[in-house]
Amino acid sequence: MTNIITRWLIAYALGCLALGAQGYRGFFGLAKETTWGTAIAATDYIELLSESLTTGIDRFPTRNIFNGWYEPDDYAGLRRSAGGIVHAGHPLSVGFLLKAAFTNNSISTVLSGFLYRNTYTGVKSEFADGVPRQPYTLEVFRDINSSHQYAGAMLNRLELALAPNQDLRCTAEWLARSQLMIAATTPTFPASSTDPFAFDTASVQLAGAANTRVEALSISIENQLEGIPTLNNASTIARVRTTGPQMIRIRGTLDFPDFTEQQDFINQTERALSLNIFKSNSFNLLVEVPRMVYSAFPVGMPGRGRLTVAFEGMARYLSSSAAAIMMVISNTKSNY
Question: What is the mean pLDDT of residues 280-297?
């Protein structure tokens, strides 16, 4: 009997090994750093749809004229870690991405011990010299024994997108300083609410009035970050700089029953844009762009079907509010 059980256990173990790594058994965690590049164990976790974080190595040749028919050896250069995550916008997880995108936020209490409001009004200052945004340590477990840990990660681009039959789809593109392998931590995902923000509780306003013609909408925050290597006795980037100011871009699909919005594009008329999404337990995400101007409004007739316009817009700075965009999230987390 003992031999039978032993053989069964060995067969079961080999069968498990044969399965290989499975994405559904992985997880993603993050933690806010106090010093750029000094890794912190994950404190919070986000359920993902996909991830593409990876480390690449620059290469450079040292010989061109070498009296041979073969390709000569080259050298490994700078290691660059970057990539993205895609996930449904949970009322708690969205706040981490907004903190990473803007660095600064203000917190107020709505209901003591339960409900808090975090307000983000665009980037106001850099986290530190050579560290433009709030840095994070990221952990990615890919169901292969250990986790990949990416230290000194900053958010280069964030997109929040809505469309019918879809959650608030968040796409975050990260730029990190270094990567190493660590023992996997134990993930704990948010339990309340278990559901993400979604299209069926979203409303859009243009110029202060409800607009039911917007069929899809995405808002992106583009930080334009660039990793800078130096002669610092290391094969990782030494600092991060911005190649330009933070840019807010709006894209969407609009029903096309008249020329009202097209004339706004032709005349470059500015309109305020507002997006509001509710969940149960007073969870709420509000996005306000006080000055939005259409940058593209391509009209045409691709066929016999109903006409829509895939518009593009950009947010402009409003001096009275000292912001080009304001994002307010209400949930149960008191500090990001």
Answer: 94
CA nearest to 333, candidates 13, 114, 57, 99: 114
Give the closest residue to 307 by CA, choosing from 263, 266, 258: 258
* 4 inside domain: no
CA 30 – CA 156 distance, rounded (Å): 16
d(CA 278, CA 288): 15
The predicted model gives 88-111 an average pLDDT of: 94
Give the tens place of pLDDT for each residue, 125-135.
999 999 999 99
Range of 170's domain?
21-331
pLDDT digits over 152-180, tens only?
999 999 999 999 999 999 999 999 999 99
Give the whole-angstrom CA distance, residue 315 versus residue 247: 8
275 Cβ contact partners less than 8 Å away, ≥ 6 residues apart: 162, 202, 203, 204, 217, 219, 285, 286, 287, 288
Question: Rounded to two decimals, what is the model's pTM?
Answer: 0.90
Query: How many domains are contained in the chain?
Result: 1
211 φ, ψ to 5°? -125, 120
For residue 169, the one-letter residue type is: R
Kind plus residue range of the DSSP H or E element containing 141: strand 136-144
Q: Give the tokens for residue 318.
A: 């409003």
What is the structure's pLDDT at 5?
54
